[in-house]
Amino acid sequence: MRLILILFLPAIFTARCIAPIKEFYPDSYFNEDHIYQNKPLRFSLNFQANWNIDTDPNQMDRPLKKLAGSFQKQGTELLFVGSTPDGMQGVRGVAINLNLSSREYAKNYRDINKNAMTTDSGLVDIVINNVPMVKWIYSKYDFRFIEFFFTIDTYTVRIAFWSKPHIFKRFLPVYFTIMSSLDFISRY
Question: Considering the entire predicted model, what is its pTM?
Fold first, then answer.
C-alpha cells in the first residue's frame, strides 16, 4: 500500500496543479441543435448529430487541457475540439489575433509544419457561403487533414478536420457541409 501511494502521489499532485485556463473568446456548443457558437468572435457552425464537441478547456481531459495552455502561451486560443463517437474523425478550432490575412497565416502555419507532412496539396483560395477562405489538405502522422482558414476583423480562425486516410474522401463532403454552415452572428 505504501509503495502504491508513493508511486501515485506525484501523479495525483501534478493532476491537480494544472492551472485553470481563462478563455479569451468564451464559446458554447448546444448538443440539442448541434450548433457551435462563439459570440466574442461572432460566428457559428452547425455540426451533424454524430459529433461530440467540447468548448471549455478546463473540462477537457488532461492532454487537451495542456494543449490549450501551450496554445495560450503562443497567443492562440483553442476554441473547441471534437470527434465522432467512433473516434475515427476529429475536429479542432483555434483563433489567433495577428491581424494577418487568412493566406498569410495559412502560409506561416504550413511552413512551420512542412517537415512533419507526408503529402501536401498546397494552399487553395476558396469561397464558402460567401466567405473567402484558404483550404489546405495534407497527410501527417497516418491521418489526412483538411484545414480551413478565415479572417474575422483582426482574428484568423483555423478549423481542422482529420480522419484515417481510408475514410477521408468519403467524409470530405461532410466537412464542407459543416463549413458551409458558417454564419456571422451578433456579440449579444
Answer: 0.87
